[in-house]
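Researcher: I'd like a candidate sequence for this fold, 306 residues long. If you have to choose between options at a position, lean toward the conservative one.
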C-alpha cells in the first residue's frame, strides 16, 4: 500500500513476578530447587549464632576464673596476710610533720583511718618508737586509734622506747608488745623554763617588753619566772597529768602507785605490773594481731571452723 506507513507498537513483554517458593510439601516434584543464594542463607545464620554462643561461653568462663581467684585471695588473707604496720616514730606534735625526729598527729591518724577502712586489712600494728610529745598530739592520735579499734584489732609494738605521751597513745591499743629492754611508761607531764637574764646583763644585752597582761611573756628567757607564774604553770601541769594518768589507769589495770612517779620502766619489769602485755618484737606483734583478727572473725561467725 502506497502512502505513509503507520508503525505498529511493539507488543508488551510479560511482567516477571517473583513469588516465594512454595513449601516443600506443596511443591510438585517437577519444580526446580530454590536458588543457591536462598540455600546459603541458613548456614550463614547458623554460623553467626554459633559465634555468639562461643563468645558468651568464653565471657562466662572468665567470670568464673576471676571469681575463684578473688575467693582464694580472701581466704589466703586470713592465714598469711591482712596486717598493716603504721609507724609512730619520733617526737609527737600536732599537724603533718614527718621527718627523722618528729611525727605529726595527722600523719599517724590518717594512716590509722586508712587501714581501718581498707577491706583488705584485717588488723593493725602501731609500731611505736617515741619518747613522747605534746598531750594534744597524743589526744588527736588516740581519737583516730579508737576509730580504728571499732573496725579492726589494733596492737602496739614498741621499739627502743614508748614513753610519756607515746605510752598515753599505746595504752588505748588492744594489746602492747615490748622488748625486754624497751623503755616505757614515763607517765607524767613536764614544762621547762629557761632564764638567761644574768648572761644578758653581763653581755650588756637589754630587752624592753611592752605587754597587755602580767603573764603575757610568761616563759621568756629574758627574765626569771615569778612565783605567781610558777604556781599557774604548776596548776596546768597537774591538771594535764591527772587527765593523763586517769586515762591510762582506766584503759589498763595498772595500780596508780606503780607509775605516778613518772619513771621509765624496762619492758621486762613493765610486764610484771601490766604496763605491757607481752614481750616480743615486731613480728611477734604482727602474729598476735593476726590471731586477734581471726578470733574476732570467728566470734562474728560462730559456724567457721577453727
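Model: Candidate sequence:
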Amino acid at each position: 500500500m502506497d502512502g505513509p506507513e503507520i508503525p505498529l507498537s511493539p507488543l508488551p513483554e510479560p511482567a516477571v513476578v517473583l513469588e516465594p517458593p512454595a513449601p516443600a510439601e506443596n511443591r510438585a516434584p517437577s519444580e526446580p530447587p530454590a536458588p543457591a543464594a536462598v540455600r546459603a542463607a541458613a548456614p550463614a545464620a547458623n554460623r553467626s549464632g554459633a559465634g555468639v554462643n562461643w563468645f558468651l561461653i568464653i565471657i562466662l568462663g572468665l567470670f568464673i576464673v576471676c571469681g575463684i581467684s578473688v575467693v582464694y585471695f580472701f581466704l589466703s588473707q586470713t592465714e598469711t596476710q591482712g596486717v598493716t604496720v603504721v609507724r609512730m616514730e619520733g617526737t609527737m606534735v600536732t599537724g603533718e610533720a614527718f621527718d627523722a625526729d618528729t611525727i605529726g598527729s595527722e600523719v599517724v591518724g590518717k594512716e590509722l583511718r586508712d587501714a581501718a577502712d581498707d577491706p583488705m586489712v584485717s588488723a593493725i600494728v602501731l609500731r611505736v618508737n617515741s619518747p613522747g610529745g605534746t598531750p594534744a598530739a597524743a589526744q588527736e592520735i588516740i581519737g583516730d586509734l579508737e576509730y580504728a579499734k571499732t573496725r579492726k584489732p589494733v596492737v602496739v609494738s614498741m621499739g627502743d622506747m614508748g614513753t610519756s605521751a607515746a605510752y598515753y597513745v599505746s595504752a588505748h591499743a588492744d594489746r602492747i608488745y615490748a622488748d625486754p629492754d624497751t623503755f616505757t611508761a614515763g607517765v607524767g607531764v613536764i614544762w621547762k623554763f629557761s632564764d638567761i637574764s644574768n648572761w644578758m646583763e653581763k653581755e650588756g644585752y637589754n630587752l624592753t617588753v611592752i605587754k597587755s597582761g602580767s603573764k603575757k611573756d610568761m616563759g621568756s628567757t629574758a627574765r626569771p619566772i615569778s612565783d605567781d607564774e610558777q604556781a599557774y604553770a604548776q596548776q596546768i601541769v597537774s591538771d594535764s597529768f591527772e587527765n593523763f594518768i586517769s586515762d591510762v589507769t582506766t584503759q589498763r589495770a595498772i595500780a596508780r602507785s606503780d607509775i605516778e612517779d613518772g619513771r621509765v620502766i624496762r619492758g621486762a619489769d613493765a610486764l610484771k605490773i601490766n604496763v605491757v602485755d607481752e614481750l616480743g618484737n615486731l613480728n611477734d606483734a604482727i602474729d598476735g594481731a593476726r590471731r586477734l583478727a581471726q578470733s574476732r572473725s570467728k566470734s562474728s561467725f560462730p559456724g567457721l571452723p577453727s
